[in-house]
Amino acid sequence: MKPNILLIYTGGTIGMMMDPETKALKAFDFSELLVHIPEIKQLDCHIDTYSFDHPLDSSDMNLKEWRKLGDVIHERYDDYQGFVVLHGSDTMSYTGSTLSFMFENLTKPIILTGSQLPIGDLRTDAKENLITSVQLASQQDHGKPVIREVCIYFEYQLYRANRTAKMNADHFEAFSSPNYPPLAISGVHLNIDKRRLWDWPGNDPAIEVVKDDATKMRYRPELVNDVVVLKLFPGITPKVVSAICNIAGLQGIILETYGSGNAPTEGWFIETLKTALSRDIRIVNVTQCVGGAVSMGKYETSIQLKSLGLVSGKDMTTEAALAKMMYLLHHTSSLPDFRYYFETSLRGEVTE
Ligand code: ASP
User: Fold this and answer.
1) pLDDT value at 152 more than 90
2) Around Cβ 324, how many Cβ atoms within 10 Å?
3) Which residue in 91, 201, 226, 320 has the fewest CB atoms around it within 10 Å?
4) Where in the chain is the domain with CATH 3.40.50.1170?
5) pLDDT tens for residues 274-298?
6) 265 Cα to the center of ligand 1, angstroms
């Protein structure tokens, strides 16, 4: 039996055309996009398509649009063996990370892809990205999908989405996954490294309440976005840190620190964080470095953060940490629970 694949178009460069008036790229009709890629009819699967009514530049992605995308997949989950989501590359790593938390115990692939050049461009990277994504989403073993996680496919590499970050605005190779190797490489052969694929262990906080049926796919679309990313820089002032920590209703801060999780040792900085923590704001320490991990206590400049009780983002990307925070703020109520699940790998997003 040929697998059924749902191709979802949310927007992005892949389907954009130049606006004759402004000369800027803007999203256009999905049917136009398919005209440029008749080859997909030759693939060994049945493809249905779904398009957002108003395709987006992914800079306009937000919780409402994530919910819409999640609902589209969830409502059709049983009808398809795999999902390919066409999405702008700008926020693709955020969307991929968020979807990975929204879909617990995923049993099918959700592969996000897009392109750096529109599909109508002669030199476009869109065709290869789209065709190979569909092929990857169609891979079956004994009638079951081989890939059971949220991925990004771009420029010959398949990555775990919640390990990626967009690292280049111009190159076809737009993404990197600094702390986890690619899951598959597309060359002459489509080589999937099965040892690297995610096999969910069922250690999600939300699972605790459904022990009776812990292996079922669960759709968890609820997210809390009263959060902020605070990137440190030499010279950051008390005024700025205090203004951010005192945002009304704030529930979580992703603190982007230096190196292996280091920050200023000045009294005002530590006191401001302490006050925020006493107001039940969760603070997660992630590194500004592209690769590597937070290790609080390694340097004198992170000892205080450790004793204050900051949660370690370990080797998580900022994108994944943000998505996980939005997810866990809804699913946990105490700091120890939040810390435990944050520092535990729920979807392969962190090295334990
Ligand atoms: N600005 C575009 C977007 O993210 C870029 C892209 O598609 O790669 O929607």
Assistant:
1) yes
2) 27
3) 201
4) 4-204+210-219
5) 999 999 999 999 999 999 999 998 9
6) 39
Q: Which helix (H) or strand (E) holds 57?
A: none
Residues of the chain with CATH 3.40.50.40: 227-342
Q: Which atom of ligand 1 is nearest to the CA of 11?
A: 9
Catalytic site includes residue 275: no
Distance 118 CA to ligand 1 centre (A): 10
pLDDT digits (tens, 9 = 90+) for 78-91: 999 999 999 999 99
Q: Distances from the Cα of 172 to the Cαs of 120, 135, 149, in angstroms? A: 16, 20, 24
Measured in Å, residue 288 CA sits from the centre of ligand 1 at: 23
Q: Mind listing the pLDDT tens digit for each residue in 297-334?
A: 898 889 999 999 999 999 999 999 999 999 999 999 99
Tokens coding 131: 């065709």
CATH number corresponding to 227-342? 3.40.50.40
Tell me which fold the domain 4-204+210-219 belongs to: Rossmann fold (3.40.50)
Tokens read off for 5: 């694949």
